[in-house]
Amino acid sequence: MEKIDTLRDYGLFDALVPRYRSYPPANHFVDRVGQQNQENWLGMVPSGSDVSVYIHIPFCKRLCWFCACRTQGTRTLRPVDAYVEFLIKELWGVKKQLAPDVKVARLHLGGGTPTILSPGTMTLLLNEVFKAFPRSAQFEFSVEIDPTEASRDLLSTLIDHGLNRASLGVQDFAPRVQDAIGRPQSLEQTRDVIAFLRDKGITALNLDVLYGLPHQTVESFGQTLDHVIGLKPNRLAIYGYAHVPWMSKRQVMIKEADLPGSETRFALASMARARLQDTGFETIGIDHFATPRDGLSKVQASGQVRRNFQGYTDDQSQTLIGIGASAISKFPQGYLQNAVATSAYQNRITQTGLAAHKGYAMNGTDKLVGCIVEDLLCRFELNTAKLALDFPQGQSAVREICVLLVRQFPDVFFINQAGLKMHDWAQPLVRIIANVVDEFTATELSHSTAI
Ligand SMILES: C[S@@+](CC[C@H](N)C(=O)[O-])C[C@H]1O[C@@H](n2cnc3c(N)ncnc32)[C@H](O)[C@@H]1O
Ligand code: SF4
User: Fold this and answer.
1) Minimum-distance ligand 1 atom for the alpha carbon of 114
2) Which CATH number fits domain 26-344+349-359: 3.40.50.300, 3.10.150.10, 3.20.20.70, 3.80.30.20?
3) pLDDT, tens digit, for every residue of 200-225?
4) Is the CB of 206 under 6 A from ligand 2?
5) Which of 349, 338, 352, 310 is nearest to 83 (CA)?
6) Tell me: domain 363-448, CATH 1.10.10.10, correct?
7) In 261-417, which residue ranges form alpha helices assigned H by DSSP?
8) Candidates 143, 239, 248, 310: which one to mutate for ligand 1, based on the most atoms within 8 Å of Cβ?
9) Ligand nearest the Cα atom of residue 144
């Protein structure tokens, strides 16, 4: 903790920087990259290759006040059932552009609350997914579950279709915190869903927890962590709560005066990290934890952790196809985002069968900087040896970035065999450092060093 003053001097408690789940972040996407790119890039996915598919379900029965996800409340299943018909049209619209023998290696249902679907509608959707995309040999199927909205029939339907990983939202178990974020959820409810899944053979379980919520103290959050550890997940995501009421209107229900200050947030995050490490979890990047035998820990050992829109992953696919309103696709050539509002998305699908409305086409410099940002966020290093192999034309850009970082953060990096490595104490600064690289690229590199 003696480094806290240095971290403060580097702006840890003031900086507002992106999470860098993509590079460039989604706020750099532009209108001129859209459906034409989507058709071209889908057509360029190599025949016989594996892709990952993400399907977004933007509906919830309850709307928790803290939530910044793209979702809307609904009391009935009518709009959900109608939306699933558009998802199916989009699946086939995408399929039409792809080589016929492309397979799905990873399927992830996220939201919103995918478990809001009725078993019948879920069966309809999954049957179409697997008709359009045969499963590859390494197939993994995961879903985000709200433990208060997860009927046993629906969970059984998912398991019957090959579900083998589940992610459950917890956030915090303290009643005072739950009241302040509009999300009641008991430990028993959560435990029951986990017991049901384990009983049916689903042992790969992730729990989402948040620090920085109203009324959280180190003591109360410690108790939540005790409960969470007692549920024996294989993975944990411990995210910092993002309070962005200008983007997510429902957050106005949360009183800013009840939020912990930035130094308490830091204490909460540090306590969680220490507690989980003491319990035997491996730390993955800035906010994930995994048991030593989990796939994320294995790819960490081999230096292959990746970062995507769900956070950290062991998924190595080159292509991620996002289906549904606001879903983002990733191709080696760049990113595409579907129309965000459900109605705009459905209109696009009706008109053309595809829904990309903006995106970003990567040039050589973007690809190089994307690798640097991913390296920093996943491994806290800048691997100059690997960059020299992958980007032989980019050596002067890499040198400029190294000089910039060492000059701006003199005591943060040391030199190792691979290149530059961050000291452990400095890891909380990694998003600030990625942002410095990002801004330098936008102002200096993009004009001078396109490779
Ligand atoms: C799609 S949501 C939750 C899935 C499911 N509907 C549930 O409620 O359990 C996925 C995760 O995003 C995280 N999340 C949502 N809003 C957030 C915010 N404002 N800041 C940080 N993380 C957030 C939460 O941890 C949440 O579990
Ligand atoms: S946390 Fe889950 S249930 Fe709550 S609003 Fe967000 S997506 Fe919906």
Assistant:
1) 6
2) 3.80.30.20
3) 999 999 999 999 999 999 999 999 99
4) no
5) 349
6) no
7) 262-279, 295-301, 342-352, 364-379, 384-390, 395-408
8) 239
9) 1
